Structure formats: structure tokens, C-alpha cells
Amino acid sequence: MVRWSRFNIASIVFGFAFLYLPIVLLVIFSFNESKLVTVWAGFSTKWYVQLFHNQALLDAAWVTVRVGLISATIATVLGTLAALAMTRYTRFRGRMLFSGMIYAPLVMPEVITGLSLLLLFVAIGFDRGFWTLTLAHITFTMCFVAVVVQSRLLSFDRSIEEAAMDLGATPVATFLQVTLPVIAPAVFSGWVLAFTLSLDDLVISNFTSGPGATTLPMRIYSQVRLGVTPEINAVCTILIGIVALGVLIASVVSRRRELQRVKDEQAAFAH
Amino acid sequence: MRVIRGETMKSLGSIRRSFAPWADPTSVPFIVFRNVTKRFGDFVAVDDLSLNIYPREFFALLGASGCGKSTLLRMLAGFEQPTSGEIILDGQSLAGIPPYRRPVNMMFQSYALFPHMTVEKNIAFGLKQDGMPKADIAARVEQMLKLVKLDKFAKRKPHQLSGGQRQRVALARSLAKRPKVLLLDEPLGALDKKLREETQFELMDLQQQLGLTFVVVTHDQEEAMTMADRIAVMAHGKVVQVATPAEIYEAPNSRFVADFIGDVNIFDGTVSSADNGRVQIETEAGFAVRVVSAEQPAPGAKAGFAVRPEKIRVSRDQPAGVPLNAAQGEIWDIGYLGDMTVFHVKLKSGKVVKASSLNAVRAVEDPIGYDQEVWISFDENAGVVLKD
Fold first, then answer.
1. CA–CA separation, A105 vs A86, rounded Å?
2. B375, CA 20 to 30 Å: which among A234, A245, B68, B273?
3. Same structural domain, B241 and B344
4. Which residue in chain A is spatially nearest to B179 when comparing CA positions?
């Protein structure tokens, strides 16, 4: 056993406080009776009730979810194809350029991505709104999916694809029946990542959205500029709850799978 | 009986069964490689190779890694295309036919089982691709499971199986479609020694039972010798010798084959006479060899005499026939292996000769020991003459 020194305890407490104190404060004040954000006046859930009467906020949430679902799905398809191209065709001309260009958006300042997309949409005369927003989100989340799927494909045993073809499966059947099911977990994590990134993006959304396509982060940001209300705290608390639940489910699922695998292996060796 | 230059030679090794279509000029080969070359960039993996494999043959491609044996197998399966030349299967050229339309199936070295499918589904995969009716698939899968004795494991996934069980699933899967030819890439490489030996015999029985043509790639000479009807020894993309295991062992056609298969002593020297099916070589090891030989090199030519350790006798007494086929030396090293003992005898010339003798009895009075003066000797048909 490791002895817990005072220094260790202090650094852990301080570290966690640094990370979570603001969030805890936000959650606590979302249940505040008072309209003043910084003064505690007793417990109440009225801000949550009020939240569901705030049509602008609900509309923004609905836009955010739709943009997230559509952009994450398309980004996953494109990102997976890009990852396949990069791991499968290792010798094509311009591969370095191609993979470099896929990774570049990862480190590109969002302001630049947003601005360049805005210029593009203006140049081709694409009216800004829901679809420009979705396209922009596909653009910047695709590379994250590509990275996640590519790392899975690097450890992928190509011989199972050869085995499938050897057994009479056409390349398309091989991809659908063998490759895709095996890399599915990575494709799914790619999708979740893309969805999450889309959900909380503010900068790029600001550049590329138009009338009638305001996302939740944009709405929150604009409201905060007029003063933080407990209503905003309530929205954020709900968001935190959703994200925390997602993380919890993901970790429980992977933990269970790990336990099952260990159990299976023990069963195999028992025979 | 093989007849070599008028001399009736005793049968080489034990004969497994009377099956020798390669020796019959009227039999039609099943698989033909005709002048096949495969290049990867500047590297020539397979070099102008021609080879015939007959129906129901258990054929082994044997060689060190990088000799082109796996490339040859992959060309047969359709994963690689020959740069030039032609591969013919059952009278049909395979050029341009993709792997999924070839009547051959392959068992992969890594087994390549589909990790997300149960044993049952793995075996059914190929049948499903062919659109076989469900009931027929179920029946065939059951039959295959019985064949490889895995009926109890139908619902398991590959990671729930041991190595030997996975190997059998891979085998069942590749046999399920009843291919004309089964290709096996290092089929036993991942098994431990005991299991490997058992499985060798199982594979042989299976091949007999099903009457299929097996082409196996291996780097393990023991595996090839045990299982195959014929072995093609490969090096640098070429076939060096194609023959039965016994011929490869007892009558290698080159220094490479003699050295590659088993242990061998090679005595180099100059031919002094060649007559009546016999060749005499004055060896650099300081004694003369006079042996039965199909090769009849001209007197004065350089030649080597290759003889296996188990065909060399070690004795304290001077053998008959000296100075031919015998030499004096001292025991340099002794290796006791249980079933036999290996002696390293250092001749007067400094050459070290390997000789092995079977330990047929448990204890010997006064066994040959270190540093003792001994004679080595062999019969006139103990080895082969290799031309340079």
C-alpha cells in the first residue's frame, strides 16, 4: 500500500478543486432561488421549469442536436474512407500531402477555419444557415474521425480480409461483412467524438451560421453577454449531466467487455 | 524400383503408399506453373519457375523465408498476379480470375479467423457467399465440425478457443466449400511441438479421406518430410529439386539441398576414375572415396561426396576396405540425444566429421569416449556424388 502523505492529499484536493470547483459552483447556483447569480437565497428548481418555456433556447438546442447528428454521421463516413485510403494505399502519389492535409485541421486555429469557410460560402454565394453550419462541422470533425479510425486500422490484420475473399466474398461483401464489423467500435468512437465536438463548437459556428440556425453554445454566449442568469446555469447543468452520463455508459460498456474477454479466455484455457 | 544407369537401386526410404502420378507420363497434372515470374520492384520473388502438381497429391513447398514459396502460394490463391508466365488449374488458366472466383481455398498462417463471428459462422461464411440454402449450410457446418472434432465449440468465438482449436476451425472453414485444392500456409507453425506432430498425421489422414490436392508451404523440413508426397525445395525464387521426401534426403541433387535437408558431411575432392556406375574421388580430407553413383563426372573434375551422419560408422578397430571409404581420427565431441549419440570425429587432415549411432541398447560396455583414436567408415552406397 502507498502511504498517503499530507502533500499527496493536498495536491489531489487542490487539483480536483481546480478542475471541478467552477463546475460545482455552476451546478449549485442553478438551483438558486434568487435571480442574482452570486447570492444564495434557498433551493429551487424554478429555473429549470422556466427553461422549458424559453422557446429561443429550445430551438437552439434542437438545431444543435440536428447539426450534431447529421454532421457526425457524414464526417464518420468520410473520415473512415480517408483512414482506409491512408492505411491501405500506402504508396500512392501525394500520400504524404494527403495525410498532412487531413491532420492540418486538428491544429488549425478555429478562427482561421471558420473565416476561410465563411469566405468560401460567400464566394460561391451559398446562403448561410443550417446547411453551411452542418458543412462546416463536417469539415472540422472529419479529421478527428480519420485519426481515430486510422489508429485502429494500423493494428488490423489484413489476412482476415484475404480469408473472406478466398472464401468467395467480393470486395464489397468483404468490407461490409468483415472489415466494418471489426472496426465498428473505432468508427463508433469516432462518431461520438465528432458529435461531441459539433455539440460544443462556438467559434466556427459563429462564422458559418446564418439566420434561423443558432446553436446552443451561440445562444448561451449571446445571453451571457447580457448577464449571467440562473437559467443559463440550468442549461449548462443539463449539458454536464448528459455528457457525464455518456462517459459513464461508455466506460461501463468497455469495462464489461474487458471482464467478459478475461472470463472467455479463462474458459478457453480450461478446456 | 528406380533404375539408375543400368544399376538397380534399392528403394529409397520407406514407401508410404503406391501413389506416384509424377512418374507416370500419361497422368495429367492438376496444377501447372509455366515459366512463372513475380517481381516486386527490383526484387525477383519467383524466377521463371515451372512446376507440375498432380491430383490428390500432398505437395510441399519447402524453403527458407524469402525464397518465394509464400508468393507462389499467394499467386495460386489469387492475391498476387504473376509478372509473367501462366498458372493453370484443372486445365483452366487462372490469369485475371480474382481470389473470390477461384476453386481453391487457403488456410492462413495466422488462421485469419473472423473475430466477430462464432465458430459456426466462421465455417458457414464461404457457403453463405455462394448462396447455399440455409438447411444445407447447417448440415455442412455440422459435418465439418465433426470432421475436426469441434462439435462442442460451435457457439464459441475465436478468442474463446485455444491455439490448437483455432487451427482446426481454420482448417474446417477452408475445407467447407470442398475446394479442388487446399492451400496451407505454414499450417502448424503456431502450434507447440507435441500438438504439431499429432496434427501432421491428422492432416495426412484428412487429405486421404477427402481425396483433395493439398499444397503446403513450410520452412520446417521435418513437417514437409512427414506429410508430403513430394517436396519442392526452393531457393531464391527457383525450385532446386522436386522429389519424394526419401529421394530429397537420400539423393539430393545439389550441395544446397544436401545441406538444407538434415545434417550432412561433404567431402570435396578430385575425381580419379568413373566406371561401372562407380566413382572414385581423392578427397581433400586425405582419403579416397569409391562409391556407387548415378553421376559420372569425368576424371580430373572437382566433385563432392555427401554422406549423412547416420550412415557413417565409428569404430575402434580398423574396418575392412582401408584405404577406401574409411579414415582415421579422434573423438572431438560427443552429443548424447537419448535415442542416438552424435560423434564429432576430427580426421588427421583437420576436417571434423559428424557421425551418429542409434542407442539400440541401454548400456554399452566400454563406450567410445573423448579423445580416443577411432576409424570412420561407410558403405559404397551410403551417399551421393555432387558435381560442382
1. 16
2. B273
3. no
4. A167
Asked if A167 and B98 come within 8 Å (Cβ–Cβ), the reply is no
DSSP 3-state assignment of B352? strand
Sheet holding B238-243: strands in order across?
B104-107, B181-185, B213-218, B58-62, B230-235, B238-243
Instruction: Check B159 against A265: CB less than 8 A apart.
Output: yes
- How buried is residue A207: exposed, middle or buried, by Cβ count under 10 Å (0-12/13-18/19+)? buried
- Residues of A near B (Cβ–Cβ under 8 Å) read 157, 159-160, 162-170, 173, 177-178, 181-182, 261, 264-265, 267-269, 271
Q: Phi/psi of residue B280, each to 5°?
A: -110, 130
- Closest chain B residue by Cα to residue A167: B126
Cα gap A120→A207, rounded to integer Å: 11
Q: Are strands B302-307 and B383-387 parallel, antiparallel or unpaired?
A: antiparallel
Domains of chain A, each with CATH number or no CATH: 54-239 (1.10.3720.10)
Q: Which of A168, A181, A265 sits opposite B116 (nearest CB)?
A: A181
- For testing contact with chain A, the best of B76, B100, B119, B149 (most A CBs within 10 A): B100
Query: pLDDT tens across B89-120, in order?
Result: 999 999 989 999 999 999 999 899 999 999 99
Q: Which three cell numbers stand for residue A47?
A: 429555473
| Rounded Cα gap, residues B201 and B250, in angstroms | 23
- Classify residue B2: in a domain, yes or no: no
Biggest alpha carbon–alpha carbon distance for chain A? 72
Beta-sheet pairing, B213-218 with B181-185: parallel
For A264, the closest chain B residue by CA position comes to B160
Q: Are B350 and B314 in contact (CB under 8 A)?
A: no
Instruction: Name every residue whose Cβ is closer than 8 Å to that of residue B177 and which is 6 or more positions away in sequence.
Output: A167, A168, B105, B126, B127, B130
CATH of the domain at B247: 3.40.50.300
Substitution target from A91, A159, A166, A179 for chain B, most B beta carbons within 10 A = A166
- What values do phi and psi take at B298, rounded to 5? -70, 145
Confidence (pTM): 0.79
| Same domain assignment for residues B252 and B303 | no
> Number of folded domains in chain B?
2
Query: Are both B80 and B208 inside the same structural domain?
Result: yes
ipTM value: 0.80
DSSP B156-208: --GGGS-HHHHHHHHHHHHHTT--SEEEEESTTTTS-HHHHHHHHHHHHHHHH
